[in-house]
Design a protein that fits this description.
This protein is α+β, with helices and mostly antiparallel strands. It is built from 9 helices and 11 strands. The strands form 2 sheets. Strands 2, 3, 4, 5, 6, 7, 8, 9 and 11 form a 9-stranded antiparallel β-sheet that branches. It has a two-stranded parallel sheet with strand order 1-10. The protein is globular and about 50 Å long. The relative contact order is 0.17. The N terminus is likely disordered. This is EpsI family protein. It holds the Pfam family DUF3485.
């Protein structure tokens, strides 16, 4: 059946344009004028994430990371804020690393970089990638498992998810469609990438602990704080 734009509503037409022509062209056509972060307030993850919750306690310091000037300039262009904290699971002594990257403007040229992009640049090999969900009282979070390895010495399975505007989106297509949906309401979306990882050769066991960590972290937050990680909409 031929494409008949006159019979489609405006919303369906814009979504079809996004798929057919690409989100960049549609976003340019819509031209949102207000940052979502100005509507909700920018998060301060160093204040939002508690140093202790459930059976998790943060280490008192983080190892220093040396970043070359070129990489640092690139990070500042992409991210408005980064936050890292390492937690110890008191019953087992296992260590989970939490990393949060926030970007105020999620236009295409400044989108958050996923671990599949970042880890290889640090010398890691991506062994596998698989879509997953993290079950919570606020709905299932669409997340991704990535199994990474640095030579023969370090295996680091990780779980991550990305909030775009007011929802969690998995994959570039979902992220771009969420950008279009918010642009239709007049907003330039922000975005938050939440990543948890563990140095472990037992990927499946590590993923289970990572899910537990995320569930207990989200449960420790107020609704407003939690919205900065997973949005307010049904997921």
């Amino acid at each position: 059946m031929l494409f008949q734009p006159r019979r489609m509503g405006v919303a369906r037409l814009v979504v079809a344009m996004a798929i057919m022509l690409g989100s960049v062209a549609v976003a340019e056509y819509i031209k949102p004028t207000t940052y979502w972060a100005d509507h909700t307030g920018e998060p301060r993850y160093d204040q939002i994430i508690p140093a202790k919750f459930s059976q998790w306690v943060a280490l008192p310091f983080e190892p220093a990371n040396v970043i070359d000037p070129v990489q640092e300039a690139s990070l500042k262009r992409i991210y408005s804020q980064t936050f890292n904290r390492t937690f110890v699971h008191q019953p087992t002594g296992r260590v989970i690393m939490l990393s949060i990257a926030y970007g105020r403007d999620q236009s295409n040229d400044t989108q958050l970089h996923t671990p599949e992009q970042c880890y290889p640049s640090q010398g890691f090999k991506v062994e596998s990638r698989e879509d997953t969900t993290v079950s919570t009282p606020w709905g299932d979070i669409k997340a991704v498992h990535v199994d990474t390895r640095l030579g023969a010495q370090r295996a680091e399975p990780l779980t991550y998810f990305i909030r775009v505007g007011n929802d969690v989106a998995r994959g570039s297509k979902e992220r771009n469609l969420e950008r279009i949906r918010m642009a239709m309401k007049g907003f330039l979306v922000d975005g938050t990438l939440v990543r948890v990882s563990e140095i472990s050769t037992d990927a499946q066991g590590s993923y289970r602990l990572q899910h537990q960590f995320l569930q207990e972290l989200l449960s420790s937050l107020t609704p407003d704080q939690r919205a900065y990680l997973i949005g307010r909409r049904s997921i």
